Amino acid sequence: MLNGEPKSFASDVFALAVVIWEIFERQRPFSHVPEVVAINQLLSGNRPPLSPRTPLRAAAVTRACWAQEPARRMKAAEVACIFTDMLTFAAPRDQKVYLQAAI
Asked: What is the pLDDT of residues 40-73, one digit of tens each?
């Protein structure tokens, strides 16, 4: 979308990954630079950095959803399955971390 392409399921998945990033990182991506710079960064393939605050599986999903080539991005249903699995089968300590991130 940033380079004039129409909205698609792949662009929605990219946006979903931004929301996932914001939930765990507790900030807005590229908030320290003007919007035009942020757009150029994204078009160049740069993504907001993932810190240790983001669980490893969530980071892997986020990266997969941010693939430069839209056809290589995960499907939203796959993201939902992975996060459901993370919450269902995680150790109680990890479940607490995931749930607190959403608060």
From this structure: 888 888 999 999 989 899 999 999 999 999 999 9
What distances in angstroms separate CA 3 from CA 18, 32, 39, 75, 102, one per listed residue? Answer: 17, 22, 9, 21, 31
The domain spans of the chain are 9-101
Considering the domain 9-101, what is its CATH architecture?
Orthogonal Bundle (1.10)
Is the entire prediction scored with pTM above 0.70? yes
CA distances from 78 to 26, 31, 62, 63 (A): 24, 29, 12, 14
